[in-house]
Amino acid sequence: MATIYDVSVMAGVSLATVSRVVNNNAKVSEKTRKKVLAAMEALDYRPNAIARSLASSRSNSVGVLVSQLDGPYHGPMMSMIESVLRDAGKHVIFAAGRSDEERERASVSFLQDRGCDALVLDIEAVSDDYLVELAKGQTPIVLINRYVEPIEDRCIYLDNEQGGYLATEHLIKLGHRSIACISGPLYKLDARQRLAGHKRALAEAGLQFDPRLCVEGNFDQRSGREGVNRLLEQKRPFTALVCANDRMASGAIAGCMAQGLSVPADLSVMGYDDFPVPEYITPKLSSVSNPIHEMGKMAANWVLQHVYQLEGAPLARRFEPVLKAKESTGMNR
Amino acid sequence: MATIYDVSVMAGVSLATVSRVVNNNAKVSEKTRKKVLAAMEALDYRPNAIARSLASSRSNSVGVLVSQLDGPYHGPMMSMIESVLRDAGKHVIFAAGRSDEERERASVSFLQDRGCDALVLDIEAVSDDYLVELAKGQTPIVLINRYVEPIEDRCIYLDNEQGGYLATEHLIKLGHRSIACISGPLYKLDARQRLAGHKRALAEAGLQFDPRLCVEGNFDQRSGREGVNRLLEQKRPFTALVCANDRMASGAIAGCMAQGLSVPADLSVMGYDDFPVPEYITPKLSSVSNPIHEMGKMAANWVLQHVYQLEGAPLARRFEPVLKAKESTGMNR
DNA sequence: CTGTTAGCGCATTCAA
DNA sequence: TTGAATGCGCTAACAG
Question: Where does the HTH lacI-type domain lie (chains A, B) (predicted)?
């Protein structure tokens, strides 16, 4: 591999001059520039990013830490972030935190140690306090999908409370009065927020929240199925069910079908996230949109503007969910 | 940020000694080790990965280049690779090639310049020749999902021809004699291979391959739907349809339903990949497994063994698809 | 077992 | 506008 030194020798200039033309950041006469470029070409010179980072303490790469690398949720987000940053000549390093506090911290350290200029985090296991501390450090951070009040200017998030509200309000408008619910795992903030929205919608409609009609799931399909079974066993009548995400709603519908219940005729079911599914599925799941692409784009833009001083599209931090009424919900008979 | 120098001063030892305890690769007396560790702790010392790479020309990170970061295909693969490598203390840098030759080449360069110790590539736009050349370079490479004969020892792939064969054979065993097909985009090797398997199965059963019963799709759901419509318009009867992946099969089934055809009663439909879908979908898609997790794991193990000299599980390079008969295929009446 | 020394490839003063 | 010198933080011989 040719080094900057080889180029300088071949071009008959100093090493510093080569550096100048490579970085294009200082006056270089057209003539010497030509010589240098020719030498670079001839030697197939490619700057060593590692050495460059060490010397300049700037890597032109940003670290992105997500809880998982697969699944319908993070894929589009990563894709969007990569796309925006890459178009700006920046690079992206992804890591997975696996919803484990140790691992999340270790990943943050890894990305910092790799010299990332900024960190985009979509993680859930670490504490708010940790994040607040982290934000005070050298490396700028942005949070996706998490609201931490002391550093709210670093947070890009969906108004989950409002989403939970919309889902339940939709059912109420359809005439449902007994609405069951399968929440997400309540140690997660977004699950609590969605549940809070659910309760607010009930309250505004003058309906009583009945804890016996609300079970806790873990966001997996299976827990949706088990959840609806538990609800059904209680023999407490309900005509609608809100689930804290699409996967649990899928499981719940499967559970209903197994018990001979028809959706939405016997039971209306709401999801949350509005993720894509095969075209021929029936019924199509009513849901609440989760603009994960947009949040990814926004995080990337935030970094571009605040870390790299590139002006660009205006920034938004808070996103509003939108109701997506489809086939799995219907009027209460 | 504390440096190795600060630690050495605080511990009252030389800089080299600190390096030794950090890397744990040479004899250090228990006593000095303790001193050093204490100093490291006190200073919250974290080695600078950049400097370390520069000095050792080894980064303990491997680059993974995939065509996309989202979708059901690459997610699980990336996840698996990250998991295996991470457990071995190695790190992973992902990049997206977007099925564009320029971009794929640029991404390879990026990963090389970042000092990756090895590259795992799941890309399709670059030529075989390019890959052969690349394999001769400094950075070891492994190919996933691509068979390039001159460097076959670097290839981890699914026997797509056999998969295509299994899919069609399944339909033939069910008594179908007129079998239509929606292939993948034929500029892609795996699409061609699956089609070849289809033809072989037909031939072995003494059936004639009818080009008019075979249309080309692009692996997207929409092209499956359009494909089946085109096939149906021809008024050439067929009782079964093989699709080169699950997404197109989904689109095809949706198209059938829209035309009042029932699957599998009126038409049997086969997919390929066997990707997970919501539990309540009907009919469940008969398919051919694509052990993408396994291939990811294998790629990671290859790197561990060949690049980092870590012994581990035995390596396999060629994977056999398995037929997954479910509900979308049935006996020919 | 430990310290000294010389780079890794480059950016960046400071002079010229 | 250009060159010489210094150092980023660390590893890796080489001595001792």
Answer: 2-56
